[in-house]
Amino acid sequence: MVKPRKEPSPERLDALRGQIQNWRESRKVPGPMPGELWDGAVVLARKFGVCRIARALTLDYTSLRKRAEKVPEGGLVKPTFVHLPMTVAPEMAPSAAPGATIEISTPDGARLHIHLEAGRGIEATGIVAAFLERRG
Q1: Which pTM was predicted?
Q2: Cβ pair 84, 100 in contact under 8 A
Q3: Which tens digits make up the pLDDT trace of 6-47?
Q4: What is the DSSP letter of 75?
Q5: Residue 113 belongs to what H/E stretch?
Q6: Buried (b) or exposed (e) across 16-44, using 16+ Cβ within 10 A?
């Protein structure tokens, strides 16, 4: 059973509709719609449905759907710093290998630090995924 989606707020929808209409009326030559306008439509489409928003804003459904599919659910997360230690063959590794440290920070300021023992790290993927999902 599919849950019905809420309706977008008229103010938010009207504001974006007005910006798109202004752009359409003020452009001198045909060309693609500016990215900021598409970004606003994508945010609404992901929350309220592509068809509903495409109709409300008089946008091409297929173009909006493709743009909405490109962006992950929580938006793009760009790491600010990633440190990956050099890996060496087991016979060349020192006996007391220090392991690795993973540090992740999100745009809202949340930080995650994980210190891994040498030869371990598979379980870190689940921890990182849970952290990033919680932030989204």
Answers
A1: 0.50
A2: yes
A3: 777 778 889 999 999 999 999 888 889 998 999 899 989 888
A4: -
A5: strand 111-116
A6: bbebbeeeeeeeeeeeeeeeebbebbbbb
